Amino acid sequence: MKKIRKGIPLIDQHDKNGFWGKFGGNFIPETLKKPVEDLTVLFEKLRKDKKFIKERDYYFKNWVGAPTPFIKLENLTSYLGGAEIWAKVVSEANGGAHKIYNATVHSLIAKRAGKKYIVGDTGAGYAGKMLSMAAKKFNLRCKIFMGAKDIKRQKPNCDAMRKNGAEIVPVYTGSQTLVDAVSECMRYWVSNCDTTHMCVGSTVGPNIFVKICGWSTSQISRELHLQIKNEFGKIPKKIKLINCVGGGSSSFGFWNEFMHYNKKQFEFIGIEAGGPKNSKKHAAPLTYGSKIGILHGAAQYVNQNSEGQIEETESISAGLDYPGVSPLHCFLKDTKRARYSAATDEEALKAYQLVTKYENLNPSLEPSHAFAEAIKIAPKLGKDTIIIVNSCGDAQKDRDILKKRLGK
Amino acid sequence: MSTSLISLAFQKSKREKRPALLTYTVAGDNTKKKSLEILNSIANYADICEIGFPHNTPIADGGQIQTASYRAIKNGIKMRDIFEIVKKFKKNKNTKPIILMGYYNMIYQYGQNKFLKKCKQVGVNGLIIVDLPWPDNMQFAKKCKKNSINFVQLLSPTTSVERMKKIINNSHDMIYYISMLSTTGGRLKISPKNILKNYFRIKNMIKKKKKYLVIGFGITSKNISSFKISDGCVVGSEICKKISQSIKNKQNPVTNVSNMVKNLKRKLI
Fold it and tell me: Is A31 an 8 Å CB contact of chain B?
């Protein structure tokens, strides 16, 4: 089996066909071969371009608001007993979630490519909202593809997108959620790749999109690395980094800088969406042993039936409601560098209640899945263990769901 | 190697001084039985029949084929049924070439070797896999050849000349030219004249070899006669749309589609 190599960023550990082990690749129509190749050449050039890096860092610092806070959750820690619980409050980034990093980088690339239009997919609406913000900032015309079901349940983010001047294209096919939005967005790109840049909203899709997104969100762990050193004086011996996993962009970004640490020192725990407690449907292909299949241009573990039809998912959290998962996470699972489990809708809601009761923090339903795991394991761990949860989104967008489910 | 049924179909069309007519319908649309009846009736006019094996996350299909695919999946179509349809079709019309078209995950789950074995068994003559471009398809294409199945390579307006040369070298009897930047069934956004200009640029590259180049995407009854000069024309979305309309109007899709294909053929003569 393939192993993670040292000294090379994980995003670059694919073979010449774009595979990380068995995962990834470029299962795309012929029409997209050239645009994908052009984008690959451009990105590989730009990431070595000091001026481009400077530009990225400038916008990350002055516009996104880097670094985002790293705080100890004192009350939650003492309530639970056991491990220390900390949060990397990525939701403090401009726009309220980690999706801003990928959106910013894609917009900068689109500018360099001379494209005037940018399109993207969205589930929870964060990827769409951030892309609309970045598009506005960098003067690009923007279209967002979003499942009709998600448009209904994530209204606040839709309002924001429209306010930023983006057009929301509702997708009525299939389950009317993220999976269909990504398909429709890719179809749009097939027809308009000569004028339009496509931003895939997570570390999914053809190889280059996985790479660009992972490269962008890695800002999170770059900041965190320094913050840990500053906070503790040196790197503590036992750290657990807990993150929700849908497509896997925030978790990958949260872990990347620590990839080469021993996993006993830095354990990576990914929490997928287990769906409603009594439902067979879920969005947790890694946890529940889904088979490898091809979705949106990449080989990955994906919920599907024996015929290869992609199965519908179910989760309270639109941002995690995706049948597949990043090839990078499939690779991390197979190499055992990360471990994955799932939290149910109910567990996520309970975690949300507990966190908001004890802390001045308002995590969205996505990171609430990660908090559920932290709450579960913290009491069993010693005080020398540091749990860090990536609070990667703000619950503002979930207010309708929370009101309905919790009456608040 | 003996001449393939696909090549024979093109040779026959050449003798009749017209392009080959290729039709695309989705297996199981709207039922298993109906799709076989449709196939049987259009085979009287079409030279080569493409049959889609439907997938529920198609990244290159437009609305009409998506609708047809969802309809077939909803009606419970399985790979097993699709092979059954081909088998039954071939019983009556064993010289009519059949090309299966679809997305790679379906084959991946079925197992490449098992899939090809089954294809050979029921009489499939060619395969078009939308999301398995060259060079990723090299190994699979080789296996197809071994089983006397044509692997149909696709070319698009975005394909560079260098790449085209390599793809043509790796192609079998038939090559598929995607007319424009579009999903299937898009409105022609460039003129037939310009499409043909690109088409002949490619034709010149493959001149010396006995290979046939067909045009697809956006071809309908309205514009098909503009492509009379090509080796072959593929019509898919318009047929799928006709099936949708027939169902909606409670008419018999078999007669309606059959008439449509008859008319398409007339326009090529």
Answer: yes
Option in A26, A190, A294 nearest B108 (CB): A294
Q: How far is A304 from chain B (nearest CA, A)?
A: 10
CATH no. of A65-96+218-406 = 3.40.50.1100
> Using CB atoms, which residue from A30, A186, A309 is nearest to B133?
A30
Task: Return d(Cα A395, Cα A366) in angstroms, integer.
Answer: 9
| Structure ipTM | 0.96
pLDDT band, residue A153 (cuts 50/70/90)? confident
**Whole-number mean pLDDT of chain A?**
96
Per DSSP bridges, beta strands A84-88 and A70-72 are antiparallel
CA distance A299 to chain B (A): 9
A407: left (phi over 0), alpha (psi -120 to 50) or beta: left
Closest to A270 (Cα-Cα) out of A96, A177, A390 = A390
Residues of chain B with pLDDT under 70: 1, 208
pLDDT at B1: 53
Percent of chain A with pLDDT over 90: 96
SS3 at position A267: strand
B80 to chain A, any CB pair closer than 8 A? The answer is no
CATH, domain range A20-60+99-214 = 3.40.50.1100
**CA-based nearest distance A33→chain B, Å:** 7
Cβ-based neighbour number of residue A30 at 10 Å? 25
Q: Which residue has the tokens 């992609």?
A: A310
Q: Which residue has the tokens 């429709």?
A: A184
Q: Domain ranges for chain B, please list them.
A: 5-152+231-262
Q: Which fold has domain B5-152+231-262?
A: TIM Barrel (3.20.20)
Average pLDDT, integer, range A293-297: 98
Q: Is the pLDDT of residue A408 over 70?
A: no
Kindly give, in sequence order, each residue whose CB lies less than 8 Å from that of residue B178, ignoring residues fewer than 6 positions away.
A30, A31, B154, B155, B156, B157, B216, B217
> What are the start and end residues of each CATH 3.40.50.1100 domain in chain A?
20-60+99-214, 65-96+218-406
Label residue B160 left, alpha or beta by phi (over 0 means left) and psi (-120 to 50 means alpha): beta
B170 and chain A: CB distance < 8 Å anywhere? no
Contact: A25, B132; criterion CB under 8 Å: no
Please give the positions of B annotated as active site: 50, 61
Of A31, A186, A297, the CB nearest to B178: A31
The DSSP result for chain B, as a single string, is -PPPHHHHHHHHHHHTTSPEEEEEEETTSS-HHHHHHHHHHHTTT-SEEEEEE--SS-SS--HHHHHHHHHHHHTT--HHHHHHHHHHHHHH-TTS-EEEEE-HHHHHHH-HHHHHHHHHHHT--EEEETT--TTTTHHHHHHHHHTT-EE-EEE-TT--HHHHHHHHHT--SEEEEE-SSSSTTPPP-S-HHHHHHHHHHHHHHHTTS--EEEEESS--TTTGGGGTTSSEEEE-HHHHHHHHHHHHTT--HHHHHHHHHHHHHHHH-
